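Re: that backbone. Tokens:
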């Protein structure tokens, strides 16, 4: 298992299969929708099926325990089921999707070996949903969530990005997961440093305070030091779980990060917020292994190390000012273990 200089073991990997998406969410940092006619073969700039599987094979050899397949919208890849089915034995495979194409594929994905799914849902009102996502796919998303539950993907976790455009719908989504068995809610803090529009950010502490007032019990998840709020439904018969993902200016979050990312075009990143990348699309397994070693050795907590506080403001740590932040090509040795 790889361990970085801060004692953080690499246990998870996120692999983006495409940056194309059939939604155009107002808070998303991607530019353009790309070709979204429906599930299709990998596009020229996207990792091929075999390239994805090479990365996962190396990750498994390095004792990475879990992979989350993401996008864009990963269900725009027609080889999604094949990737899930051929993922290394013992590696947990999960998926993040907007859910609009999940109804027809949930059974097949479970049969292929998918274990968990996150579905983006930023409102329970169709009109508000359409305004936020720039799509009319609300009913398809609800059908997709139902299909995932019927297929055995329990619990299904709903993802909601909390910002000015969605904050008013938090209570409705909390009520929904409290009333519906098999659902959980993940409230994700808006990240203006990635998506822009800092004026859209809301005080996530107020969300915590509101949840704490409603919760019957509260737990802290070791991963990223996340808070989990358990809230009973109106009849007191059921209980919903709401988890808050609050990375912005959160040193605990960064100090507990155990994952790396692979972009749709094959770049390995040690941190979402750091631009240093290592292209891997055409590398051999030995070269990919060397890239993992290099990236993990270079990992630092973004908040608390790469970014530090001075006079109450977050500034870049001078230790990293001279660092080359983007690597177009890398030279690795096949025998570098």
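Recovered sequence:
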């Amino acid at each position: 298992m790889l361990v970085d200089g801060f004692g953080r073991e690499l246990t998870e990997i996120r692999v983006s299969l495409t940056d194309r998406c059939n939604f155009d969410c107002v808070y998303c940092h991607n530019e353009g929708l790309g070709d979204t006619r429906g599930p299709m073969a990998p596009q020229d700039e996207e990792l091929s099926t075999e390239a994805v599987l090479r990365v996962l094979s190396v990750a498994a050899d390095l004792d990475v325990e879990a992979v989350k397949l993401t996008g864009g919208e990963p269900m725009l890849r027609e080889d999604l089921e094949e990737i899930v089915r051929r993922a290394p034995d013992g590696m947990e495979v999960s998926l993040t999707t907007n859910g609009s194409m999940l109804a027809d594929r949930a059974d097949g994905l479970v049969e292929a070996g998918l274990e968990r799914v996150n579905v983006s849902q930023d409102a329970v009102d169709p009109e508000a949903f359409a305004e936020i996502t720039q799509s009319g796919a609300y009913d398809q998303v609800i059908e997709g969530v139902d299909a995932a539950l019927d297929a055995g993907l329990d619990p299904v976790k709903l993802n909601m990005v909390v910002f000015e455009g969605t904050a008013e719908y938090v209570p409705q989504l909390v009520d929904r997961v409290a009333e519906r068995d098999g659902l959980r809610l993940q409230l994700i803090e808006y990240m203006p440093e990635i998506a822009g529009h800092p004026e859209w950010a809301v005080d996530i502490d107020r969300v915590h305070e509101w949840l704490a007032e409603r919760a019957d019990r509260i737990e802290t998840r070791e991963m990223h030091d996340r808070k989990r709020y358990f809230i009973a439904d109106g009849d007191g018969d059921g209980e919903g779980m709401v988890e808050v993902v609050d990375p912005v200016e959160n040193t605990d979050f960064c100090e507990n990060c155990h994952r790396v990312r692979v972009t749709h075009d094959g770049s390995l990143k040690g941190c979402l917020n750091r631009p240093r990348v290592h292209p891997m699309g055409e590398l051999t397994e030995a070269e990919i292994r060397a890239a993992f070693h290099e990236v993990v050795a270079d990992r630092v907590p973004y908040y608390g190390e790469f970014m530090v506080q001075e006079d109450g403001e977050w500034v870049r740590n001078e230790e990293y000012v001279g660092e080359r932040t983007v690597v177009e090509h890398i030279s690795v040795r096949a025998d570098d273990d």
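The radius of gyration is 20 Å. The longest helix spans residues 49-61.
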